[in-house]
């Protein structure tokens, strides 16, 4: 258990940051899931409309350190490919 004032403060800060990071990661997953569901439902217009919001969320998550930059790039690349493929066939 922490004894010093500074270590007690670090514990409080860590708990607060953990909660914020958990919320951000959950929000990111929900955003990605909604786009993937639109792609699975073959709703090209809605999926394309949701892409900017999703990309913004992915970029912010990478900036905050929730996910790594390469992971963010991979998410964006794969979503873009799937949406392009869907719009090309439609």
Structure write-up:
By secondary structure, the protein is mainly α. The protein has one domain (about 5-90): Ribosomal protein S20 (Methane Monooxygenase Hydroxylase, Chain G, domain 1, Up-down Bundle), CATH 1.20.58.110. Helices cover about 85% and strands about 0% of the residues. The protein has helices at about 5-40, 45-65, 70-90. The longest helix has about 35 residues, at about 5-40. It is elongated and about 65 Å long.
So how many helices? Answer: 3
Helix content: over 70%
Order of SSEs: HHH
What structural class do you assign from the helix and strand content?
mainly alpha
Low-confidence stretches: none
Could you name the key traits of this structure?
single chain; 90 residues; mainly alpha; Methane Monooxygenase Hydroxylase, Chain G, domain 1
Task: Tell me briefly what this model is.
The chain is mainly alpha-helical. The protein has helices at 5-40, 44-64, 69-89. The relative contact order is 0.12.
Q: SSE layout and pairings?
A:
Layout: H1 5-40, H2 44-64, H3 69-89
Helix pairs in contact: 1-2, 2-3
